[in-house]
Design brief:
308 residues; Rossmann fold; Dihydrodipicolinate Reductase, domain 2; seven-stranded mixed β-sheet; six-stranded parallel β-sheet; 10 helices; 13 strands; globular
Length: 308
């Protein structure tokens, strides 16, 4: 039997708890510990999972083979860098970093050291199971909407909604079209603080027009992607886990049943990649493409609103 991957979880909030539970229940991994600046929160998660609560991050890094990072976005670069410098494989929640330069630095360092660097864009797995990435579709236009109410407990308020929500859709577009975005436009509004809470954006990749809308001040929850083709449309509802397809390309209508737990599947893929059993489904290098586009949109939104 393959030796289990020793995993540490950095961050005991909502997503840190998800990842810790997945590691604790995996046949491939052993959850050795958790770390959080909030000691009480870390104690609670450690007790729930039977893991050790580390008081020093360096001690946890020394005890594990891989670390899963679920902390505020502005801390990602520094913490991923510390994990890589310690020789540990890293899974980090999105975004990988807040600039293309920093994302590229992490990618190059991980690849140079032969380490797995995976980013939490698990909706890629949804689209892959749906068969969307395999269909040879000339896409004329893509519309993406990702809206919901303000996050509980102020989660993700350290960055704009571009980095909080829209980054998922930017990543899906880069996977579908596989080229650099150009002609970026964006505008946003701030209501809850100093960061953008609602943003509308657009860009082109090749001849495909892309429009995006993201909001964390919406009364309703919506996660949708619509692809417009010459012979029909594909409408994916990520909340209802359904697809409406009027194009001639066959898709997997049973994708929700085939992939009931995208985050769990992504975590299992990370464990397998660290153990040398598979390739990571969301490499740092591919995720860095979305970072570059998000940075462009943030810059455009700031210039259009005069914010900050």
């Amino acid at each position: 039997m393959t030796q289990k991957l020793r995993v540490g979880v950095l961050g005991a909030g909502v997503f840190g708890t998800y990842h810790a539970r997945k590691a604790h229940g995996s046949a491939l991994a052993e959850l050795v510990g958790v770390f959080d600046a909030d000691g009480a929160r870390a104690d609670k998660l450690a007790e729930e999972t039977g893991a050790r609560r580390f008081e020093r991050l360096d001690d946890m890094l020394a005890a594990c083979d891989a670390v899963m990072i679920a902390t505020p976005a502005r801390t990602h670069f520094e913490l991923v860098e510390r994990g890589i410098e310690a020789g540990r494989h890293v899974l980090v929640e999105k975004p990988l970093a807040l600039t293309a330069e920093k994302a590229g630095s992490l990618v190059n360092q991980a690849e140079s050291d032969g380490l797995v660097l995976q980013v939490g864009h698990q909706e890629r797995l949804v689209c892959r199971t749906l068969g969307l990435f395999d269909a040879p579709m000339p896409i004329e236009r893509i519309e993406l909407v990702r809206c919901g109410p303000p996050p509980k407990g102020g989660r993700a308020m350290d960055v704009s909604v571009i980095w909080d929500l829209m980054i998922h859709d930017i990543d899906l577009v880069s996977c579908l079209l596989g080229a650099e975005a150009h002609g970026a436009r964006a505008s946003g509004i701030c209501e809850l603080g100093t960061e953008f809470d609602a943003v509308e954006a657009a860009f082109e990749i090749g001849r495909t027009r892309v429009s995006l809308k993201a909001s964390r001040i919406s009364d309703t929850v919506e996660r949708r992607m619509r692809l417009f083709l010459s012979d029909g449309e594909i409408d994916v509802d990520f909340v209802g886990r359904s697809v409406r397809n009027t194009s001639r390309f066959a898709l997997n209508d049973g994708f929700a049943t085939d992939l009931p737990d995208p985050l769990g599947a992504a975590d299992e893929a990370f464990f397998a990649a660290c153990l040398g059993q598979a390739e990571t489904p969301v490499s740092g290098r591919s995720a860095a493409i979305a970072v570059a586009t998000a940075e462009k949109l943030e810059t455009r939104a700031l210039s259009n609103t005069g914010a900050k």
